[in-house]
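Re: weekly structure request thread

Next one in the queue (257 aa):
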Amino acid sequence: MEQDVYSFLDQIKYEAQTYVSSRLESMTLQQRQGAMTETIRVLDFLFAETIKPNIDPSNREQLVNVFRYAYPVLVKCLYSNFSSEKGIALIASDDNSIINANRLVHACEIIGYINNYKEQLKLGILSVKKQEKDYLHLTFTDKYYWIEFIEDNTILKYAYEVAYTQIEDYEEAFNRLPEILSQMEPLVYVWKDHYIGYTTNPAIDNFFYKNALWDALQAAEWYAFPKDCKFGGIPFEKYVHTVVMLIIMTPGNWTRI
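Done, posted below.
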């Protein structure tokens, strides 16, 4: 039975991998770069949807799963050594390119899901509830597996409480946004005829750094270890700054573009 389950999952994964391979194998380096840019646009759009205040929680969770399962696979599949390219041409999206990018993201999400299911089956976190020829129903082995139980009962409460303590800072930042945008606008320029270039200043960088830090403090699985507490010989403070810098790249670049 166990082998049948893995074979079932591997067949789904194989079909998704076949689709991804068929899309990528005939691409030039520049086309692969363009595909990566297009999928990033799709992910940017989906992320913007997740932070809408009126979104249904189940829909938000579905969109967040795209980042959990599709994004790592996308990077692994699409990334190459682009050092021979002078830059990334921002080609305008059309209906066809958007559809193709969505299909690629979905195929990578399926691969990510299957990898996750197989790992959790091996660890005993998931088990098979029902299996038929073309149907497989997986369920958590324990009714409340401790990670999911903590997430469902604690993390959202923690995030809301942290957000409440930061409300004055958020309001101040929101009021400063027009000023920051006015500073950013003249710093954007055309680079090498086809590319977007931009410079910055300390006020802009500090604005996005603070926003990213506030977001990171609300993030799931954020633990308040002492700054000098070391993991793998690296102080926790460095991990924090790394996460914050990665967050900065997203909202900062969206607004500048």
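Residues 251-257 have pLDDT under 50 and may be disordered. The first strand starts at residue 126 and ends at 132.
Next request, please.
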